[in-house]
Amino acid sequence: MLEVEDLWFAYGNLARGKYVLRGVSLRVSSRVACLLGPNGAGKTTLMKCIVGILKPERGRILLRGRDITGMDCRSRAKLISYVPQEFTIPFPYTAFEVVLMGRNPYVNILQGPRAEDEVKAREALEALGVGHLAGKPFTSLSGGEKRLVLIARALAQDAQLLVLDEPTSFLDYRNKLVALETLRGVSRQFSKSVLISLHDPNLALLFCDEVFLMRGGEVVAGGRPDEVITRDSIRRVYGVRVRELRVNGCKLIAPEDVLLK
Amino acid sequence: MDKAILKLTVFFAFLLIASLCVGRLLFLPWRANALNMTIVMYVRLPRVMAASLAGAALGLAGVALQNTFRNYLAGPGILGVTSGSAFGAVLAILLLPPNPAAIQLTAFAFGLVAMSLAYYLARLAGGGILALILAGIVTSALFSACVGIVKYMADPYNKLPAMVYWLLGSLAGTRWGDLAPAVPPLLVGVVTLLLLRWVLNVLSLGDDEALALGVNVGLFRALAVVAATLATSASTSLAGMIAWVGVVSPHIARLLVGYDNRRLVPASALVGATLLLFCDDLARTLSAAELPLSVMTSFVGAPILFAILVRRRACLAGS
Q1: Does some domain include residue A244?
Q2: Residue A61: beta bridge partners?
Q3: What range does the domain containing B219 cover?
Q4: CA B245/CA B276 separation, integer angstroms
Q5: Total tally of structural domains belonging to chain A
Q6: Residue A25 included in any domain
Q7: CATH classification of the domain holding A220
Q8: Do B198 and A92 touch (CB under 8 A)?
Q9: What is the pLDDT of residue B308?
């Protein structure tokens, strides 16, 4: 589905040693893939390069075998939708208006959306179970509702790949689970691929089909979550000693120092 | 058509007709005679048209810049355009023989120079919204200082009063001939901003999200800013410095039609036109001597903005 080949990126005119992405290569072949790694590992930068917000210095990005590295933003927006980690919408647009903006890649920019775009936006809201929020100001919604509305916008964008930067940030424990379960459901129901970044290895183990472990701007391991997230890899990447547990056949990890206490 | 926009249009049309009838002499349409018709056609109609066009342009420029810069308080002055136009006008008054067309043209030209300088400085500062706002503040301060120098150098009995009069804004003495040079750039700005109303929605989400939604941010932001500058410079060259209309009109329009720019942009144009026309009517009817237009717009605009802020606070407390 998504292939990243030898991607290099640096902010500004930095010396070679200051690259934020250092030859990143990965191949996403599953429904729900996850970038996992400590702060500053380069997850958000990699996502922004994939979406086209940042231009990599070197390397290629391919979607279903098609090179999209130099593609114009409008064509790329038809293939990849993006939900950022932080979203500050300054004006209180209604949730429906926010989702309708997801139709922008298909809209004649001087005419605005047509009736069929409005139908698609309503369908996306209904699919996420937040149709009742359509008329409410986006700024008045709770964190979890905002996240669902933005996922609805990504769905309305009708792209093959949904990229979500830390979709669980600022959410309480229940809403984290709801958001990830919803993404998994969207991926299955609409045959979309989803690439997310997470901070919690256990959530990656529970909800993702594939994990790419990042450190210092490089992908250090990639594959099935239970193969990638191990005692050794977590100690290498995070510097934390963990114990592997099995709950109903599902692998989880717990910090060893806490357990010993 | 949206009901609120239809009501606004009807109200504006009513005010337009009323503005032709009121003034030092009160005309009743059913008692019109040849003299009345001459005054209406050659004195009041060009003035009413100028007020409407300048108000619509300022309202549109305000809403476009508020969305482009994601800032409720952005207005036509944000990139130093009004300060640049003011400098052009006072320079023309200082150096050239009295000629309204020359003042208009230099005011317009320096408005564009100010916008170009702000854009250039923003690029030197690394680009982006914040750099552009800061560059606008620098440009505005620079041209305000230049206006101060020109006023200081001006002949206090002859040139200085003309400068002060122009800087306070007025549509007195506007004739069809004065409209001619200002209307083409003003219309180009107005039509462009009306066409960009959907993309303003997406631009207001911020650079990253707009780009991810397929909008060429650099191109469309530049288009919106240039169109707003054209409209502002042209209206400033026509009516002088007009305060508040550009900032307040979008706020009033939001109360009527909401935040979606597909309705908000035309509504802001209508509110701007209505507001400036109303203020101009007050300026020429409230006292025997004509009041400066910018004083009138400030007296009307400032309380309206305060009322809107109080109402918003009450709404937030209630929600």
Answers
A1: no
A2: A4
A3: 3-318
A4: 7
A5: 1
A6: yes
A7: 3.40.50.300
A8: no
A9: 83
